[in-house]
Amino acid sequence: MRSLLGPGSRRVDTGCPAGEPFPAAGRVPGPGRRPRRVAVDRGPVHGREDDHFAPGGTVTAPARTDLGLLVLRVGVGSTLFAHGAQKLFGWFGGHGVAGTTGAMESMGFHPPKPSAVAAGLSETGGGALLALGLATPAAGAAVAANMLAAGAVHRPAGFFATEGGFEYPAVLGAAAAALAVAGPGRHSLDRLLGDRLNRPWMTAAALVVSLAASTAVVARRERAVAAAPTSGQEQADEGGRAARGAA
């Protein structure tokens, strides 16, 4: 029998023995003839359990990618949410908006209170959206932009976090940007909603707008630091202490 099986195929009876042509429409097999089964290819079937498992039960590469994205989203998103909740609500031992406002002012961000609220919303909202896999391009871009500004505060101390450097915001920012580009994966609200808020053009637009806005904020902050009466190193040290306290 000729094999026409393909992914997602199913067998149907044609009523013809092997080697004979298919019957015309409306014809049925004659007496004594056994119907034979041929394959009708329905094309790939999405959303089924067997999409993620090979015949032997082995997890396929797409399934591993989706699970990895889920772990990354939940880990990074929950961490960001916790830090944002410290800034906005004073949860988890944080200082709330009032304390974060003072930290923003000492670090050179003006106006300080809107800067504190924006940073808190970016981390809380962006982190929650990343964990849920909802509006992933916008959430990832917002977090990446916020981490760019945070990294600018720590940059004078070098890279490593043990020395007060920008290692920590760099890792969070890179992870958020990667999720914005790669998407949330199968196990997400974006996928459940048909990826309406996860289009390729949204990723490009969100990253360009968010990073441009963050670059402008960083440039304004650096001008304020340069114009401050204290030396640049003293201002950087003070800003680093305030940043750690705000976190």
From TrEMBL:
According to its record, how does it sit in the membrane? Multi-pass membrane protein
Q: Where is the composition biased (Low complexity)?
A: 21-31
Matching InterPro entries, A to Z?
DoxX, DoxX-like_oxidoreductase
Q: Which UniProt keywords apply?
A: Cell membrane, Membrane, Transmembrane, Transmembrane helix
State if Protein transport is listed as a keyword: no
Q: Residues annotated as region Disordered?
A: 1-36, 225-247
What Pfam families does the record point to? DoxX
Family of this protein: Belongs to the DoxX family.
Specify the protein name.
Oxidoreductase
**Species of the source:** Kineococcus glutinatus
Instruction: Specify the taxonomic lineage.
Output: Bacteria, Bacillati, Actinomycetota, Actinomycetes, Kineosporiales
